[in-house]
Amino acid sequence: MTGWELKVRPRDWQNVALERWRPNRRGVVQVVTGGGKTVFAQLCLLEFFKDETLGQALIIVPTVSLLDQWCIALQDEMNVRPDQIGLLSGQEKPKGDEPIIVAVINTARKFTATFAKGRRIFLIVDECHRAGSPSNAKALDGDFAATLGLSATPEREYDEGFTELIAPKIGPIIYHYTYRDAAAEGIITPFSLINIHVDLLSDEEERYSKLSRSIARCIRKGGVAEGQEERLKRLLQQRAAVSANATMRIPVAIKLVEQHRGDRAVIFHERIDAANTIVNILKARGHRATVYHAEIGPIVRRDNLRLFRRGLFDVLVCCRALDEGINVPEASVAIIASSTASQRQRIQRLGRILRRAKGKTEASVYTIFATEEERKRLAQEATSLEGTTTIEWQQGKMQAHA
After folding, report:
1. Which tens digit of pLDDT belongs to each residue from 208-250?
2. How far is CA 232 from CA 159, 166, 392, in A?
3. pLDDT at position 226, please?
4. From CA 55, how far away is CA 98, in angstroms rounded?
5. Residues 6+ apart with CB under 8 A from 262
6. Would you state the pLDDT for residue 300?
7. Rg of the Cα trace of the chain?
8. Sheet holding 265-269: strands in order across?
9. Interatomic CA distance for residues 148 and 274, integer angstroms
10. What percentage of the chain has pLDDT greater than the value 90?
């Protein structure tokens, strides 16, 4: 591993966490997105390879976007050569003898246990909460010389997957680093939240209201009774889709980019077709914009991310599937044009924009919302972040005339 070294100075919390991980080389580190968990993992990698010169590291990630991010980070931040990194996904296969292999979790389910036999493996599970389902937990099978889990939110929202499936294989949570910690220490950029309400069009409002009435009837009849649970779930998904696809989200997002022309901005939308529409409109208006989503080939996808980070593009438009893995500290504006009810997704998206970068003094996060359910979630967030940031509420009718 000649030439491997961390190109940045470790932060205080990373040194403290390393001391907690070092004795057993096992455990989960809970770090707010943007706090530096990838750099911490690289510290642990260097620590492991000091003693295990013939060992290998297997880094499990949930998505190809995070595989891309690790591939770039290992080269740019730790001086690892491209030929020393193997990639395992539905699109790529490693040779198997590389010092570091990065694998997407659904492909790693049938890979890890066999790969780990007879080898000294350091298992790193990034966004480890994603390994808490019975199927994904198979990617953690095997005997390992060291383990490390990373996540801003390791405990899962709707089940006991962390306690039952993750902690027994990777270890318990050994360190917490929160938004308040990061803000107090100047680790994340000072930020403001601007929540912008847009109206549903008349046909969208009619569809949304009809589904809401159906949901209410289903619940009154016993939403979890036999035969009703699946119907209720389907109705909730259909109503969420009406909101997520609200027509006015796109022109308002475009108008916000226009207001920040020249700033580096990331736009999130739930749908690939909407992301493509947004980027095409922006290009037509003279913006240097590009798109990043799962339908783009891996080489072009990584190039788009690199070129955005290097300043050749000003706007990056991406989709929900890429919340975990986009590392764009140079961006100072985030526009969440469409989102789900997941608190984890919200934390991930905030973290995308709060990383510090040279010349970046503040960040703005715009969230476009269309329904009362969304407003309530944002109001709860405002209460939890009181004293940490400024929060503004706007009506998006005027912005809709972009």
Report:
1. 999 999 988 888 766 455 566 778 888 988 998 999 899 999 9
2. 19, 30, 34
3. 58
4. 10
5. 314
6. 85
7. 22
8. 289-292, 315-319, 265-269, 333-336, 363-369, 191-197, 390-395
9. 37
10. 55
- Please, which residues have CB within 8 angstroms of residue 65's CB and are 6 or more apart in sequence? 292, 294, 301, 321, 322, 324, 325, 326
Check residue 79 and give its pLDDT.
94
171 in the Ramachandran plot: left (φ > 0), alpha (ψ -120 to 50) or beta?
A: left
Cα–Cα separations (whole angstroms), residue 13 to 9, 267, 354: 12, 30, 17
Arithmetic mean of pLDDT over the chain: 87
Residue 21: both structure tokens together? 């991980």
The amino acid present at 2, given as its one-letter code, is T
* 280-308 residue pLDDT tens: 999 999 999 999 887 888 788 878 888 88
Residue 178: pLDDT band (50, 70, 90) is: confident
For residues 170 and 27, the answer to whether their CB atoms sit within 8 Å is yes
pLDDT confidence tier of residue 316, bands split at 50, 70 and 90: very high
Q: Which residues of 10-41 are buried (b: 16+ CB within 10 A; e: fewer)?
A: bbebbeebbeebeeebbbbbbbbbbbbbbbbb
Q: Which amino acid is at 351?
A: G
pLDDT of residue 399: 40
CA 104 and chain centroid, separation = 14
Cα dist from 193 to 2, 323, 365, 384, whole Å: 45, 18, 5, 13
- Amino acid symbol at 251: P
What size, in residues, is the chain?
Answer: 402
